[in-house]
Amino acid sequence: MRLISLPNFFCSVALLLASGLATSQNSALGPLQAFTDARIILGNGDIIEQGSLLIRNGVILELGPTSDMEIPTSATQHQLTGKTVIPALVNTHAHLGWEAYGDWGSQYFTGENLIDHLYRHAYYGVGTIISTGSDKEEIARRVKLEQLKGNIGGARYHLSPGMGSPGGGPNPRFTDDPGYWGVHPITDPEQAKRKVAELAAAGNSIAKIWVDARDIRRGAQVKLTPEIYGAVLEEAVNQDMRIIAHAVTLQDHKLLISLGNRRFIHMPYDMPVDDEYLQMLRENNVFIVPTLGMITKGEPYYVPAFQDPFFFDQAPASVLDRLNSNYRPPAIRSPAAQQRSAMLASNLLRIRDHVILGTDAGAVGDFFGFADHVELSLFVRMGMTPMEALIAGTSRAAKAFGLDNVGELAAGKAADFIILNANPLENINNTREIAEVYLRGQRIDREQLRSTWTQERQ
Ligand SMILES: [Zn+2]
Questions:
Q1: Band (78; pLDDT cuts 50, 70, 90)
Q2: At what angle do helices 6-24 and 446-454 cross, to 10 degrees?
């Protein structure tokens, strides 16, 4: 798909959406659609056991127990007895544009590939995606604008430009790439504030910072200092910009919170979290993306994507062959590694009320959309309940970034949802039992996408 030009891609996207658009032209208000008699998991912790949804123009008009609703006969009816409806997922940490399914690198960061990745997420029921600190911003903004204008579908795309110490930033896989374009360097508090203002003026409402000693190990002169990131956090408030910080130690988390940071990529990996930290999380309403998929690859239960039908159904044989031949089974875990896993699981459970979904897909060999379902099942494997995992993957993730219209099913919110054949509260792996995905009130043509993706590239 990356071989075709952007306008051509718009054409194929237009074809995919043609049925929805054709019917909506009949009325300025658009067609009314009713989804009736499903179990509806709202995303905020509530369930309606036999509920219905009425949608129009991409928005939920009404939602409630079927017995309390009057379904207009003019509405297109979707009878969902036995099905479960959940909000489309909200992923707050991935890296779009670099993945080429079998190869990877900066040369793949094109509009076509970025759009493809939005559709990959949509296919799996991810309705909103925040790409964190690795997007080619000129291309990314153009794609984002086209999506806002309605010319592109797929998951709702948010970029978050990255700021860091000169020479620092994302993991070395990105920074070692000869085509890597770099972070926005911030070198002193005043310059950092100007940078935040500049990014806000360019239309960004989210940005990322890296606070990690690994920056020094690979050439940055300093780890980002509290003076500098404090200035970023201060100016972000003035600019109504939301900062997400990459940080991996308990001490950095505490320092960042004390200076106003409210969102983290990664949980503390270095030591057990303590009561002081938990109190800080509660008092400041902090959100944390644990990204468990990244740190559980050596676990005995880990299944590589190419062995999982939920992934390989939508990949051509050549991609699976490459993944298979590049695969090195993880080493047998040492007692120290096992101890660390136990500590991470216990940390996760202690911060469970702050956890939000993010996958790091597109950076470390995890695949878009597929990885979201893996992450939800890891939450549960580590001891969260299925309902907690769903909240983390929907309403709380949206709230963390002020994305008010997604992540929850309620009147007035976006008609972004997944229809499941089985109940994820009984088994979290049932999020994989996807019957249909609707984004903006339109059905995603999953069969069409799958047939495009499973064709071999020439
Ligand atoms: Zn990442």
A1: very high
A2: 160
